[in-house]
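Work Package 3 committed the consortium to producing structural models of liganded targets before the mid-term review. Because experimental data for this complex are still outstanding, the team generated a predictive model from sequence and the ligand definition alone, so that downstream docking and mutagenesis planning could proceed in parallel. The input record is reproduced below exactly as it was submitted to the modelling pipeline, together with the SMILES string for zinc ion.
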Amino acid sequence: MSDYYLALVDPVANVTNAKERANRLRDGLIVNGIISAETSEECVYGGLGHLPGPHLKDLYVLVEGLSDRPPELRDWDTLGICGVEIHAEKWVNVFGFTVFESAKCPACEKTFGNRSEIMTPLSAAVSHFLKRDEPTTLQCPSCQKTQTVQSWITTPHLGFCHVAAQFWNWPRFDAPGWQISIPEIASRILETNVVTTYGRM
Ligand SMILES: [Zn+2]
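The resulting structure, written out as C-alpha cells with the ligand in place, is given here.
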C-alpha cells in the first residue's frame, strides 16, 4: 500500500504572515501532545517532520473488535513514515492529483472530472502558483470566466496556500477512535476554519 497523508490547510495565511501562523500551529499541536517537538528526516519524504506526539495513545483509542481501525492506519510506534510536516511557505497538494476527483467552477458551477479539459490548465496553475508572486488564476473551459484558482472547489482540496500541516499515514481525522478533533483544535489555534484534505503518493 502506498503512503498517503491527511493535510490541514490554513486558508487565510499569506506570504507576510505564513511564518508566524505556521509557528503558532506547530506550537499548538505540540502543547496538545499531538506532535512532538522532536523532528526527523526519517518520518516524512524529503523534508523535516515532527514525530507523533506523546499523548496520541490517549487521544486515539482503538477499540478491539470494533471496525474502528482504518485499514491504512500505521502504528505510530513503528516510526515509519508517520511524521507531520508543517509548511510555512507556498504549498500545493500535488499528490492530491493522484486521487483527484473533480473541480467545480465558482461562476457557472460546471463540474469537471479527472480526465477532463480542466486538468491541463490546473496543472499549469500549480507551477504558476509556486513560481510567481502574482495571483494564480484558472479559466473555466465552459463559461470562459477567469478566477483565482483558490475560488474553485476541488475534491480533494489542492492547497494553493501558504501554511499547511501534512500528517503522513495518520488515521482519518473522522475515524471513531479519535477522542479529539484535530481539525477543530487547529482551527482554534489559528482562529479560522482550517480545510482538511488528503493525497496519496
Ligand atoms: Zn464556468
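Reviewers should note the following from the model. Residues 105, 107-108, 110, 140, 142-143, 145 surround zinc ion (CB under 6 Å). These observations will guide the Year 2 experiments.
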